[in-house]
Amino acid sequence: MDLHTLTLRQAQQKLAAREITAKALTESLLARIDQVEDKVRAYLSLHPEQAMLAAERADKKLAQGQGGLLCGLPLSVKDVLCTENMPTTCGSKMLEGFVPPYNATVVERLLAEDAVILGKVSMDEFAMGSTNENCAYKDNIPQNPWKLGYVAGGSSGGSAASVAAGECLASLGSDTGGSIRQPASLCGVVGLKPTYGRVSRYGLVAFASSLDQVGPLTKDVADCALLMQVIAGHDQRDSTSAKQEVPDYSAVLQDGMKGVRVGIPHEYFGAGLDGEVEKNIRAGIAMLKEAGAELVEVSLPHTEYCVAVYYLIASAEASSNLARYDGVRYGQRAAADSLIDMYRQTRSQGFGEEVKRRILIGTYALSAGYYDAYYKKASQVRTLIREDFAKAFAQCDVLVSPVTPTPAWPLGQKADNPLALYLSDILTISANLAGIPGMSVPCGFSAAGLPIGMQLQASHFNEAVLFRAGWNLEQQAGVKGKQPDL
Ligand code: GLN
Fold first, then answer.
1. Vertex 458 angle, CA 457 and 462, to 5°
2. Is the CB–ligand 1 distance for residue 67 below 6 Å?
3. Cα 125 to middle of ligand 1, angstroms
């Protein structure tokens, strides 16, 4: 049996019934990686020995009936999350060979539930990008498992590609401006960016601290609920993590859509939206209606400013966060005669082009004389964007839209055009600016066989309604269970 095709839930049942062992499951995932990784290129580092040891421990616990929620389930983790015994490079030469002295809280929580971590997956350098092509390790740029030679999306491209290709059962990614939802959509998997503060950021290498969130990428909505249950909740080591109770996400999946108001923001169906994407999303909306939802038209009038506001705020925060890479404490240090020269050489050699571009934009936006015109103005418009959502959520419970204006495109096609890539983030970045949760759920395919995802967004800490709507969509969309030919 092809164990790599199982969902987390299916594998969990087989393990509990002792139909399979964690060892056999992990071996089968490692064999799958062996078979397809040459084509997919999702992993930056693989750790088969650690994984097999974890699987053996999981089998012992299962035999004693003491396994945690993820006991024996093989996962991948984006290389932006600190892992004590595995390198964490953030897709950058700056952190080549860096092994953190501690685990991120989310990693600790996976391990506490007896998960098996197979390895660390590829990403755009410091999570800046939308195609994974900004990864500094050019042999490790993931391909879209549905169409090799096409982008897997970014920045969590390795997470999405590894799940879609059956190279793990699920993954953790991070989302600052769409980096979980966009690759999930392009690779036909489920991805959730939780509410800001829902999941601890401790041990997540910071890109833009007021926007970053960790979240799951999974094969289906039920798996997403399971993984969220493990990673969500307060952490005293992250002062922005919320003290809110975590509801039982799995319990609401089958609650149906009766009484749920689904809002359609007309600004998200504007010029530039691909015809096939629009057709699939409209069909998905009809499915939600069929399931009992009430449809309402809503408006998010400040949508057109989101891209500009995001790229100012995210870059400003990045320029400050990335100041720590100076050759003194982390990763690379260039040889030089003076301290200043060492800083200069280390940063010139260690960072790639896109990261330098963001640091330059951010430093400019924060500098004396320009701060009021750029950073302060962007922060003010951010408040207006938040208010748009608050008004929309007075009229509806969940907002539906496309995730990306187009399906995946060929690798290289937009690689030299940063502005075109920034503009393609238009539908995802507002959730980060507002701090609200957003989910991408597969809802169809283009004629060329590329996946199309629907975005569902809800008010702060209302992930439950996303699980409800996502599960309903998944039941009807007929995408679940489809596997790419590799
Ligand atoms: N494409 C966005 C950017 O380059 C998204 C990044 C992210 O969510 N990490 O900033």
1. 135
2. no
3. 10
Domains in the chain, number: 1
| Residue 244 CB partners (closer than 8 Å, separation 6+) | 197, 198, 234, 461
In a domain, 267, yes or no: no
**CA of residue 229 relative to chain centroid, distance:** 16
Note the pTM of the prediction, 2 decimals: 0.98
Asked if residue 173 belongs to a domain, the reply is yes
C-alpha 255/C-alpha 247 separation (Å) is 14
Q: Which atom of ligand 1 has the smallest separation from the CA of 208?
A: 9
Mark whether 250 is an active-site residue. no
307: how many CB neighbours lie within 10 A of its CB? 18
Q: Identify which of 177, 176, 161 has the alpha carbon closest to the alpha carbon of residue 217.
A: 161
Contact at 8 Å (CB) between 12 and 62? no
Mean pLDDT of the chain: 97
Among residues 78, 120, 219, 414, the one annotated as catalytic is: 78
Q: Could you give the count of Cα atoms lying within 13 Å of 171 in the half-sphere of its Cβ? A: 37
How far is Cα 322 from Cα 127, in angstroms, rounded to an integer? Answer: 12
Residues 6+ apart with CB under 8 A from 99: 84, 85, 86, 87, 88
Q: Is the shortest distance between the CB of 425 and ligand 1 below 6 Å?
A: yes
Question: Is the minimum distance from the CB of 130 to ligand 1 under 6 angstroms?
Answer: yes
Q: Ligand 1 atom closest to Cα of 176?
A: 8
Strand, coil or helix: what is 389?
Answer: helix
Condensed to tens digits (0 to 9), the pLDDT of residues 33-42 reads 999 999 999 9
**DSSP output for 392-458:** HHHH-SEEEEESSSS---BTTSSTT-HHHHHHTTTTTHHHHHHT--EEEEEEEE-TTS-EEEEEEEE
Residue 310 lies in a domain: no
Q: Say if CB 54 and CB 9 are below 8 A apart.
A: no
CA distance 214 to 193: 7
Residue 268 counted as domain residue: no
Say which residues have a Cβ less than 8 Å from residue 88's Cβ, sequence separation at least 6.
Answer: 79, 80, 81, 82, 95, 98, 99, 100, 120, 205
Domain around 167: 3-257
pLDDT for 177: 98
List, for residues 385-415, the tens digit of each pLDDT value.
999 999 999 999 999 999 999 999 999 999 9
Q: What is the CATH number of the domain that holds 111?
A: 3.90.1300.10
Query: Whose alpha carbon is nearest atom 5 of ligand 1?
Result: 177
177 close to ligand 1 (CB < 6 Angstrom): yes
pLDDT at 1: 66
